[in-house]
Q: What sequence folds into this?
């Protein structure tokens, strides 16, 4: 009988092989770590961040080392993970049209959002409970973002407070808000984030209908650890300092019983001093409503990394209709499946002002803490800069729709 750890590793490998064999996932989301093309180069997982050749190298590490329940929660999409896979596949439906013989010695990758310049279009998407991946959690992400000045969006479900993360980042973060069904609670969270310096609030709207995370549930069944030392059933939000003091009934309300609609958004708008964006937009109609009648300052095209509704469309394919509906009135950001500099280039060409990554920096963090997140950002920045050079563009403003073609 193998010992427990070996047995669990065998189960995990079998399970991943099973998932990789599913027709939807073949070679896409989990099985090959998400590399879309080419053979998955079977090599031992890397031992330090400097050895990583691409962001998938970090995924290979956490696939072996992260507790199964945490890995499954992070990796999971909804239902059969189809939207998760389609986020990646969507990029293959667009091709880059390069221009040659351009002097690309000097390339400027910076973008401007609400009057502030950021050296890179990559932002860290809000990811809840990052202490699940590394004890330093959001602080590790903040310190890594600080190195080259990346924008960080902090989740309501953060494992560290907005005050501590702001200090670690060395400046304000954008603050992501779950509506929690109560305008008073939302206002209190906004006031706390604003007091910490956050001048941009991001309201996530794509979990209001509930979700079905089967992969997460299957992995959790393989986890034999005692989870109650961290997940205290008496105090389910004890590890979430931003909502720890709230009435648990309110803190938990994000599903279909939550009365959140456009009227809620308009009333919230009135109590946000700075900018208010919504995250989770996938249609031109919602985008037009957001920047029109609702008076919002921007939208983020997102399907929660394929872990909210099962729409069957990758976010890169929803981006063009949103950009068209917004019509230049406000910035449009996008996330979902960004793993390569070429993915970023395509999104910017289709009209995105910036892109966010979720899982890639979690892989880096789970593997090597802050150093892993730093290396993930470094790799994606380098790939993006190289893609700009290869396409013959020297500034982000110059990346227009003529640089991509639908295949
Ligand atoms: C483990 C995990 C936790 C997440 N938590 C949040 C959250 O608290 N708030 C939120 O708005 N989005 C959350 N997201 C969604 C991300 O902000 C982002 O939309 C998504 O990860 C982008 O896709 P990608 O992981 O393929 O890069 C989470 C995603 C993951 C993977």
A:
């Amino acid at each position: 009988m193998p010992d427990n750890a070996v047995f669990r590793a065998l189960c995990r490998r079998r399970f991943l092989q099973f998932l990789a064999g599913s027709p939807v996932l073949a070679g896409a989301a989990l099985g090959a770590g998400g590399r879309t093309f080419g053979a998955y180069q079977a090599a031992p997982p890397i031992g330090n961040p400097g050895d990583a050749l691409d962001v998938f190298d970090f995924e290979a590490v956490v696939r072996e080392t992260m507790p199964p329940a945490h890995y499954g929660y992070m990796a999971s999409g909804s239902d059969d993970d189809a939207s998760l896979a389609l986020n990646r596949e969507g990029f293959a439906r667009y091709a880059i049209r390069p221009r040659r013989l351009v002097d690309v010695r000097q390339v400027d990758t910076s973008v401007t959002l609400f009057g502030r310049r950021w050296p890179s279009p990559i932002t860290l998407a809000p990811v809840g409970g990052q202490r699940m991946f590394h004890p330093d959690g959001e602080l590790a992400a903040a310190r890594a973002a600080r190195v080259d000045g990346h924008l960080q969006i902090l989740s309501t479900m953060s494992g560290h407070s907005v005050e501590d993360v702001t200090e670690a980042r060395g400046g304000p973060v954008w603050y992501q808000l779950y509506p929690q069904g109560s305008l008073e609670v939302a206002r209190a969270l906004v006031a706390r984030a604003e007091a910490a310096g956050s001048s941009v609030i991001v309201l996530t709207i794509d979990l209001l209908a509930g979700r079905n995370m089967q992969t997460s549930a299957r992995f959790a069944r393989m986890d034999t650890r005692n989870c109650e030392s961290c997940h205290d059933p008496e105090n389910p939000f004890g590890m979430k300092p931003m909502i720890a003091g709230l009435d648990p009934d309110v803190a938990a309300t994000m599903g279909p019983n939550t009365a959140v609609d456009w009227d809620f958004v308009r009333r919230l708008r009135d109590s946000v001093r700075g900018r208010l964006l919504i995250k989770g937009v996938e249609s031109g109609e919602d985008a037009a409503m957001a920047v029109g009648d609702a008076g919002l300052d921007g939208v983020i095209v997102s399907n929660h990394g394929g872990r909210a509704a099962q729409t069957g469309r990758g976010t890169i394919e929803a981006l063009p209709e949103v950009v068209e509906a917004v019509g230049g009135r406000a910035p449009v950001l996008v996330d979902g499946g960004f793993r390569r500099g070429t993915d970023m280039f395509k999104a910017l060409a289709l009209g995105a002002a910036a892109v966010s990554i979720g899982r890639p920096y979690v892989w880096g963090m789970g593997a090597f803490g802050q150093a892993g997140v730093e290396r993930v950002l470094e790799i994606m920045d380098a790939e993006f800069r190289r893609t700009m050079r290869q396409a013959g563009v020297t500034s982000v403003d110059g990346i227009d729709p003529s640089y991509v073609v639908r295949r």
Q: What stands out?
A: Residues 74, 87, 125-128, 155, 157, 176, 204, 279, 302, 304-305, 335-338, 357-359 surround flavin mononucleotide (CB under 6 Å).
